[in-house]
Write a structure and sequence with these properties.
alpha+beta; L,D-transpeptidase catalytic domain-like; 2 domains; eight-stranded mixed β-sheet; two-stranded antiparallel sheet; 10 strands; about 20% helix
């Protein structure tokens, strides 16, 4: 009962326009049950009831809590699970207000998959490696580039600190889409389906957090 009352208090505060400043995993989410009952559950419970990589979410939540001042757009969290084959929708776009998760296809760098298997096997922060880089990013300003509407990425980890200088950006690509045995490859950018790029950037630009994750690789330069 105490937990429910505390959650309702949090919901009242957030609903009145205040920013929620507690631990992200404990953020209360309100779900209606029938016409009269309201159940308060946490953001963590809502997200992990969906097919997301829980270790990556846990690490991203901790980073978010410790670096909240860097993250201007606090409505969204994105995770790329590079453990998964590129034929799988391995980009998770998480709504931090209601816990809903969209899954999208995303490409990795050609240098990360030199045999074109569809699995990213190596990662780098080095110029002209054409590899994807692991770690935490801010999805920053949008612009029009070679692939049309795109968003610049700023690396926050030692393993991706060269992202802006390497021109690693979020963009759309015609070599990414459903029904492929593997996606095409970029020069290190996280490229998504062209039809998704505009709504995705509308959501995520303005310094939202992106985490490029692999469970078997240490975060290092």
């Amino acid at each position: 009962m105490a937990r429910i009352l505390l959650g309702l208090i949090f919901l009242f505060i957030v609903g009145c326009g205040e920013v929620y400043l507690g631990p992200l995993r404990d953020k209360p989410i309100r779900n209606s049950e029938g016409d009269t009952n309201v159940k308060v559950i946490t953001l963590w419970e809502t997200i992990t009831s969906q097919p997301v990589p829980e270790p990556a979410v846990d690490q991203a939540f901790k980073f978010f809590d410790e670096n909240r001042g860097l993250i201007r757009n606090q409505n969204w969290l994105s995770i790329i699970d590079f453990n998964q084959h590129s034929s799988q929708p391995r980009l998770y776009v998480i709504n931090l207000n209601d816990g809903n998760v969209d899954q999208l296809f995303v490409a990795h760098g050609s240098g990360s998959d030199p045999n074109d298997t569809g699995s990213a096997q190596q990662f780098s922060n080095i110029f002209e490696s054409y590899m994807s880089s692991l770690g935490f990013y801010l999805i920053n300003e949008s612009y029009i580039g070679k692939w049309g509407l795109s968003a610049r990425l700023d690396g926050l980890s030692d393993s991706n600190s060269n992202a802006r200088e390497r021109a690693i950006v979020l963009h759309g690509a015609d070599y990414v889409g459903p029904g492929r045995d593997r996606q095409g490859m970029s020069q290190g950018c996280p490229a998504v389906e062209l039809r998704w790029i505009e709504p995705l950037i509308q959501r995520l630009r303005g310094r939202s957090l992106l985490y490029a994750y692999h469970s078997q690789v240490d975060l290092r330069p």
